[in-house]
Amino acid sequence: MIGNIHKSWNKHLKEEFNAPYFKALTTFVTEEYQTQTCYPKQEEIFAAFNHCSFEETRVVIIGQDPYHGPNQANGLCFSVHDGVTHPPSLKNIFKELSTDIDKPYPTSGNLENWAKQGVLLLNATLTVRAHEAGSHQKKGWEVFTDTIIKKISQEKSDIIFLLWGGFAKKKVRLIDSDKHHIVTSGHPSPLSANRGYWFGNKCFSKTNHILNKINQKQITW
């Protein structure tokens, strides 16, 4: 399963790949993909890492589960394949993006371009059964992705973590706030956004402002 993860991550995650929990996770995921319809496609499970190397990571956005509808999940949190209808959370992300930095609402919901600029689009759980939200939670993925957040925090500096919603905000315990930048807001889901916890957070312009202050190239959102 790990054969298609970008080599830049291997040295940082080698111990995880050899850990008993990860071997059990690999067995579970392999069986699920053999017997159930699961998302994303197997070759896209580690897409977040393959589009954004460890060295190039500058911003981290944390999601929870992949989309569990047909043809939606592409391995990047909140992202969908080209031509796929934008899910509600992604619509709200793009609405905020439009008002925050005066950018036209994007046609494609594929966020690969963000990833290629150093935005790690990390779901806490990297796989899911079709139409069964949360079905691959508590199988080991969270241990793995928490380790990734800790590794980034420990081994890099001046990373911008965008923590959207209660689930993502809990990850603050894994991040050294003395050497990194944390931007929080409500979740872009309709439930949160309609209650006033998402719109107007200006997380995209805030991120670029921080990047400018630390003399890094801004993200073209």
TrEMBL record:
Keywords: Cytoplasm, DNA damage, DNA repair, Hydrolase
EC number(s) reported in the record: 3.2.2.27
Gene3D superfamilies the UniProt entry points to: Uracil-DNA glycosylase-like domain (3.40.470.10)
Active site: D65
Domain Uracil-DNA glycosylase-like as annotated: residue spans: 50-211
GO cellular component assignments: cytoplasm
Subcellular location, record wording: Cytoplasm
Gene Ontology MF: a single term: uracil DNA N-glycosylase activity
Main location: cytoplasm
Reaction catalysis annotation: Hydrolyzes single-stranded DNA or mismatched double-stranded DNA and polynucleotides, releasing free uracil
Gene Ontology BP annotations: base-excision repair, AP site formation via deaminated base removal
Domain of life: Bacteria
Family: Belongs to the uracil-DNA glycosylase (UDG) superfamily. UNG family.
Function, as annotated: Excises uracil residues from the DNA which can arise as a result of misincorporation of dUMP residues by DNA polymerase or due to deamination of cytosine.
The name this protein goes by in its record: Uracil-DNA glycosylase
